[in-house]
Amino acid sequence: MSLSAVADLLTCPNCHRPLSIMDRTVRCPTGHSFDLARQGYVNLLTGRQPANADSPEMITARDRFLGADHYRALADAIADRAAAAVDGLPAEQGRPRLAETGAGTGYYLATVLDRITDATGIATDISVPACRRAARAHARIGAVVADTWAGLPIADGHIDLLMVIFAPRNPPEFARLLAPGGRLIVVTPGPDHLRQLREPLGLLGIEADKQDRLQATMSAHLEPVQRDRLRYRLRLADDELIALVTMGPNAHHTDERIAERVRALQPPVEVDVDVWISEFAQR
């Protein structure tokens, strides 16, 4: 979609004044302006794209893997939780306003918007290729290139539901964004997530106390509501394994021999999906 449906939520990254769309430009009253890309996203980074931003190759791999619905059970579980959270909002708050930070291709946000048919959503990511893809993931998504750690260009207290799925977490920033009664959904890997691939493919490890630390850091700013664990198993061929490994942070830590290592596993391989879905509320 055009960015117009969510433009009233966006703020200038330089002066924090409200933004509006004029022709192909996004402007603030102070005079700062940002070009609206022909693909429909806007870049509100104030500096260069960070070096750790997802590359075009990573986004293509993620689009291929998620597009095959290997994580559909996870997406549906998130949508169930999101719909329940939004159902609890006061009717006078009007159309639900959603956001996903580190949204990548927009796959999860699009699934949630399919479920919550009157909502609009902002997808933010530091990767330009990711936002280019997210901008066309759903008719009610507005995509913004922005850095979670630098302060998101979204107005205080206007987001009814915020999602952070396998992405960086900035608790005080999330608390700033949430409207009264707003909810945050955080998805993190469990101890057995992709365990069959970690050692043979040299994947990143998962800290044993990850969930405890998440609860502690989030609880300083938001009220814990509930958390659930989702576990299931995939059976993946070699091209699917390569896409899985190269679509996320592991891509920064694997070498060009990844295809050779995958073939050595003699696919198809059974792989565990193990994730925690945690929900927090604005205080």
TrEMBL record:
Binding site for S-adenosyl-L-methionine: Y71, T105, G106, H193
Keywords noted in UniProt: Metal-binding, Methyltransferase, S-adenosyl-L-methionine, Transferase, Zinc
One of the protein's GO biological processes: methylation
Binding annotation for Zn(2+): C12, C15, C28, H32
Domain 23S rRNA (guanine(745)-N(1))-methyltransferase N-terminal, first and last residues per copy: 11-45
InterPro entries attached to this UniProt entry: RlmA_N, rRNA_m1G-MeTrfase_A_prd, SAM-dependent_MTases_sf
Keyword Transferase: yes
Pfam families found in the cross-reference section: Zn_ribbon_RlmA (PF21302)
Highest taxon of source: Bacteria
Protein name, as recorded: 23S rRNA m(1)G-748 methyltransferase
Source species: Microlunatus soli
